[in-house]
Amino acid sequence: MSTRAQQYPATVLRREQLSRHLVRLVLGGEGLAAFRSTGVPDEWVGLVVPGQFQSRYYTVRSWDGVEMVLDVVVHDTGLVTEWARGECVGDVVTVTEPKGSFSLPDGAGWLLLVGDLTALPAMARIRETVDVPTRIWAEVPDDMGDYLPPGAEVTWLPVPEHEGSALAATVEQIDWPEGEGYFWMAGESAQMRAIRKHLMRERRLPSDHYDVMGYWRSTAGRQPRAVDPGPIHRAGKAAGRTDAQIWDDYDSAREQA
């Protein structure tokens, strides 16, 4: 029998604009008292913000037992973007139990980290946690030179003009270190699929020596969302409807659209 994931209410204590596209949220409050970190350096949590009933996942940049730091990428549109860009301090959000996947093999002699802006918080926390020679390739739209902790060889990559990603091509040109190590990468899903094939077919890395995750999907060529779930959620909650009923309302609205 499956059990429902643990959820924690949290209050936005502080908000800081780190760059044009990255906002730092500091969460706290009594609701986080029972939160327990996995200890895995790329751990993430689901975040549900006011006016929404769908979660979006973010890396826990840090957790000291009292306050949780989430660095949130903001786009032109999105479930969390408009909220995070506004005056959100004091708002109550929901955080889900953490999960993580980073698993450095015993005896690994090096670490390669590759990612775009969405992966930057995880790469920063991994760098703070793991003490092996590390190289980082970061594809970001802003000057984030002070964001990553010192001690790693960092290559900053510009975002392509078409606002997609060229990380797959970057990885194919990497001069790989000798011996056994670990490769970690996160970013746009299509790029990640290409990299998995490269690691399996060209590099022939053992499956436990790499971790490649799609954090988001490019909207290029995709139709915009026909129905905004926000108003439906707010109306449903005001009417006392359950989340399941609200989902039914949302599905019906999509069919009509």
Automatic annotation (TrEMBL):
Pfam families registered for this protein in UniProt: FAD_binding_9 (PF08021), SIP (PF04954)
Domain called FAD-binding FR-type: residue spans: 5-105
Highest taxon above the source species: Bacteria
Start and end residues of each stretch annotated as Disordered: 223-257
Coiled-coil regions, chain positions: none
PANTHER family documented for this protein: FERRIC REDUCTASE, NADPH-DEPENDENT, NADPH-DEPENDENT FERRIC-CHELATE REDUCTASE
Name by which UniProt lists this protein: Siderophore-interacting protein
Record organism: Nocardioides malaquae
